[in-house]
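Homework help board

Subject: predicted structure for assignment chain

Our instructor gave us this sequence and asked us to write out the predicted structure in token form, then describe one feature. I got the tokens but I'm not sure how to describe them. Can anyone check?
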Amino acid sequence: MSSTQFSVIKRNSKTEPLDSEKIYKRIFALDADETRSKALVAIILPSLSQNMTTRQLDELICETAMTEVCNDPAYMSVASGVVVSALHKETPAKFSEAMKLLPHIVTQAIIDVATQLDEHIVQERDYGFDYFGLITLRNSYLMKKDGVVIERPQYAIMRVALGIHGNDLERAIETYDHMSLRYFTHATPTLFNAGTHRPQCSSCFLLAMQDDSIEGIYGTLAQCAHISKWAGGIGLHIHNIRAAGSSIKGTNGNSSGIVPMLRCFNATARYVDQAGKRKGAFAIYLEPWHCDVLDFVDLRKNTGDEERRCRDLFLGLWIPDLFMQRVKDLGSWSFFSPDQIRARFGKCFSDVFGDEFVAMYETAEKEGLALKEMKAQAVWNAILNAQIETGTPYMLYKDHVNKKSMQANLGTIKSSNLCTEIVEFTSPDEIAVCNLASIVLPRFVVHNETGGLHFDYQKLMDVTKIATRNLDRVIDINYYPIPEAERSNKRHRPIGLGVQGLADVFAQMRMPFDSPEAATLNKRIFETIYYAAVEMSTELAQQLGTYDTYEGSPASEGKLSMDLWGVKPITDYDWAGLYAGVKAHGLRNSLLVAPMPTASTSQIMGSNECFEPFTTNIYSRTTKAGNFVVVNKWLIAHLKELNHWNEQIKESIIAADGSVQHLEIDPKVKAIYKTAWEIKQRVLIDLAADRAPFVDQSQSLNLFVAQPTHAKLTGMHMYAWERGLKTGMYYLRTRAVAQAIKVTVAADKEKKQPPVMEEAACTSCSA
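My token output:
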């Protein structure tokens, strides 16, 4: 290769001839494949221009490499390598030097100890992140001074580790190593705030409406604002607010119901925007016996009176079994106002569940307390219409949550969080909190001695225990926006362990998502996580004591989560020894496992979200550097093995909206790469039900129906309820009227464009 006639402006402002040989050497150093490196240089050369800066040259190399990723995923390492090398040139060479530049953000304790950690930083691990992960980190997570990035990814990870463990450098280094090797990651608030002057590391806050009064409503609104200010996602139940038309004795007037009140919460969510990083995010929960429930389910619709809409709120139904049974039996359904129920029974329907709820509800019906009545099927159809148009309301089953709760001794649980995986007790003086981390499952797929692949359950157990200890520690070092949150979190000490990349594991191990092998692997993974989390929580209880409200809990009576489901493990771990440990020492944490959406952290770690199937095998992703076509890397590798990957195949997959089912290849291969739209939703529900006994909170279960009908949705919801799921549905993803991840295919001359992956609503959460 010869030098070009162009010049390049270096970072020190000096100009020198632009040498294509240097471009080749740089790419080859990142790729180590001569043929691929030369091919990339050949594509780059025609795009060179006079007096490019080295930064512009880097951008050109990145953009060119990323345009080739759809042909060969190996080009991703070139793009990510260029980003890392540029970042390393522009940031301090040592962790301690970077921390000294950030005294306005990080604590003095970290600055003081930083020099002792310099030698433990492994700079090369930055190259392990893919391009999109690095761009996400650089744009949103790495600390800046005057708009200039100061941290490297390794520095950010060490800051988080020190923020959690303080002067316990051994634990900090252990955390750093496992996070930097991408075995697990803490959730976004922890990555943002650990080690800072205000370490608000919690992801989820669950609130009870304080009271059905001006003081109660606006007191709760103020709590939501304080939490949102510090980047917390909010779940709020409003079951106790009187219905429209109910009398107000204090003013001798009538209530306007929940909708005008919720418009205040909607405006607050827009105004108090999670520390300026993203919109505030409030999920509102309501039980279907409330007289305003039909107005509630319509709040996010795109049509109708604007004064009756709250499109920035997320909506969830908290559904008793009685309602589902009446829908199933084609019975009638009665609506009530909670103030009248309290006046009659001294408590509300939301305060009870199971047989006690049924007895109260049927008594209220017989005594004529209902404000109106209609066919349960008509209410159901209104719910389905809203889901088809907006993807919500969420479907959570009140009786399943409460009958299988490890916090059963605290009282009735009345709502979930923003993303439907947290189910914890709340009261007017206790705001439930949860700290989250997700385990990166593809990292546990390893080669065995014969060259095949197997899943490393022992490593999964080890990493789960580290993450459990970390999350328990976060409870103590955390900054709490309001005292009610601190009181609750330190009394009950719940944590939320989740996963990401389950679909990557199945694809990597060549298992169809809907295969018996995948079902068994799914069970074993979650049994392992739960076993390890309980074991670590027991060890912590032995060292530090049980959580304050342990006595009277199911665990204190010898029951673990699977016992509440009546399920036995399939793994051969020492479960008897585990029970003995709990009996002897108790638990440090009331709750442990809660698979969350992992939207942002999956981008960082390069995994598919949580336990979801791939929604498409090819899509267009937009960053500040441009639009890039991305193909499922496992699919490309598999098709290359079969000598079946070329431009024509790629275009045919684009034309098929990311599906490979039309390809003339082995049906077993096509089965592995079914998309979420091609897998029966019964399979997703069965996988969720199989893991559920080892998920002591709940799970963010999205369901995918390309062309939804009432019949399809009814069958799906009924099946999820009958399988005993706590969360029957998070979002309904559709390809018809509304979708949280939208897929649009536009004609470009005679070529179809790949689906466009847009930001999902769940990125408002903090996982």
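Reply (TA_rk): Your tokens look well-formed. For the description, you could write something like this. The domain at 210-403 is CATH 3.20.70.20 (Anaerobic Ribonucleotide-triphosphate Reductase Large Chain). That's the kind of observation they're looking for.
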